[in-house]
Amino acid sequence: MTDVISGQDSPVDLDTAPSPQPLLSEASNDELVRLLAERARAQGLKLAGEGGLLAHLTKRVVESALEGELDDHLGYDKHDPAGRGSGNSRNGSRAKTVVTEAGPVDIEVPRDRAGSFEPQIVKKRQRRLSGVEDLVISLSAKGLTHGEISAHLAEVYGASVSKQTISTITDRVLEGMAEWQSRPLDSVYPVIFIDAVNVKIRDGNVANRPIYLALAVTVEGTRDILGLWAGEHGDGEGAKFWVRVLSEIKNRGTQDVCLVVCDGLKGLPDAIETIWPQAITQTCVVHLLRNSFRYASKRDWPALARDLKPIYTAPSESAALEAFIALTDTWGQRYPAIVKLWESAWPEFVPFLQFDTSIRSVVCTTNAVESINARIRRAVNARGHFPTDAAALKCVYLAIVSLDPTGRGRKRWSNRWKEALNAFDITFDGRLSAARK
Is the dihedral of CA 20, 24, 28, 29 positive or negative? Predict the structure, then answer.
């Protein structure tokens, strides 16, 4: 068989290139690649895309691999006399086009007379090599819509992939998502952050629906996203919803949590007390401050910020209460809603004041989880709205699995928590040691 790559001037015959031998040295392989690349470049041949050098090389490699699989299946090589009378033999081939990262490639798939050959490199009815599926999932995780992914594959790789096919590829991650959502968890976590990302669901009318995210810090200081839950219909989630969510986490192995940081979610503090009686519920201070400024005129923000700071930086609860009384005297008449906001949040606001400053700096805000939410929102906003909760959860899950591909963020996260975890060991005496056994 002679494969010819047609350029603008004269063809490049792959069969005239040096044939790779089983025991070629690395230097010989490099020389072969250099030779092919130089020939293609000299003739103005494109590297990727339909009809490109990579497509023809992919065809050669895939077809050779398929012939090797058939040799193993039959038990003898092509043209080997040992195959005579064996009961099964080659029966020609069938043409097939597969979509690869190098573009669409036409290949010949060998067949056997008995019809028992099941190729594994390119399976029956498979039209895409795995690299394309990985590419589709990666683009989807970055927020591209199915139409945009289809257009990208057509423009860059010359491959025609329908939006329905792309949806089928991304639907396969749901199996991995179910396994991820039910995996065993650590027995103890120092901190769990719970926050929400609002998505638009097209259920009759388009309406906002929360997707809740639980992010934990392990006793080694690493990040662990425990799961995703779609908010319920109606006026919001109450204690029953949160008991179900927290019970699921507990049933997966988490028997104790030191701190749960959240943002005033209705019914959650009661559920935490029910599931983990020793856990302390801490409200997000940054969210509390943001909500305070929403009730005030912009011209009063600098003065209000100065009066709020002594509250959340107070060395003790009594000092924070004195600062709050001063705030009430100054702003209570003009902005009574701010005073009411702090009075309502006070029981969940003050717990972190009893801790070391290293613990305060990392648990008084949900910024740790909001950095992840920012990536999720990028993917969600690119889609606009979703037909179902499952479609929204799939989008969020894809964004999560694509986080920190280099591992650098994980290392920074771990370094950030070292000092705080030392303080946790002292403050919550003995409770973290169970997870280290």
Answer: positive
* pLDDT, tens digit, 9 for 90 and up, residues 63-88: 777 787 788 888 878 877 777 777 78
Q: Which of 12-16, 122-126, 330-334 has the lowest mean pLDDT?
A: 12-16
Distance CA 86, CA 208 (A): 66
Cα–Cα dist 163/171, whole Å: 12
- For residues 263 and 275, what is the distance between their CA atoms, to the nearest angstrom? 18
Rg (CA), the chain: 30
Query: Measured between alpha carbons, how far is 146 from 130 in angstroms, rounded to an integer?
Result: 18
DSSP-derived letter for residue 386 is B
Residue ranges of the alpha helices (H) in 75-211?
Answer: 130-141, 146-157, 163-171, 173-181
What 3-state DSSP class applies to 405?
coil
Structure tokens at 298: 């912009």
Report the SS3 class of residue 357: helix
Question: Does residue 300 contact residue 338 with C-beta atoms inside 8 Å?
Answer: no
Q: In degrees, to the nearest 5, what angle opens at C-alpha 298 toward C-alphas 294 and 303?
A: 100
Q: Where are the alpha helices (DSSP H) in 253-351?
A: 268-275, 285-294, 301-312, 317-331, 336-349
Phi then psi for residue 261, to 5 deg, are -100, 125
The label of the residue with tokens 């025609």 reads 160
Kindly report the pTM of this predicted structure: 0.66
Token code pair at residue 291: 């909500």
